[in-house]
Specification:
Shape: rod-shaped
Largest sheet: 4 strands, antiparallel
Strand order of the largest sheet: 1-2-3-4
Order of helices and strands: EEEEHH
Structural class: alpha+beta
Radius of gyration: 30 Å
Strand content: 15-25%
Oligomer: single chain
């Protein structure tokens, strides 16, 4: 599974080197050391030791970007739908309460008339 990163593009900002995002490629994986070797656009190299860091600096492929966008949109739709359902329930409850209050007022008026 570690080999899945080899050949992939990466990008990262480095403290002390401004806000530029440096681009590079994962050129190899050392099974013994459990590290990935990255070659940056300026010809320098670095080693990455954790899967989390690799996932953070990977440049997503278009298909991954699209899948992420679709998931985000679906999530937003679910939130909107849940919010709408919640608001509809609240409105229904308020209408029911208003209806009860109106009935109670009518009963009170009727009682006053009868007394």
């Amino acid at each position: 599974k570690a080999m899945e990163f080899v050949g992939r593009d990466v990008a990262s900002v480095f403290p002390g080197y401004g806000s530029k995002k440096w681009k590079g490629s994962v050129i190899s994986y050392d099974r013994r050391e459990k590290t990935w070797e990255i070659e940056w656009e300026d010809g320098t190299g670095s080693t990455c030791e954790t899967r989390e860091t690799m996932q953070a600096i990977l440049v997503k492929r278009r298909s991954e970007e699209k899948a992420t966008k679709v998931k985000k949109e679906k999530g937003e739709k679910k939130v909107k739908k849940a919010t709408k359902v919640k608001e509809e329930k609240k409105e229904k409850k308020e209408k029911e309460e208003d209806g009860r209050k109106t009935k109670m007022k009518k009963k009170k008026k009727k009682k006053k008339k009868n007394n």
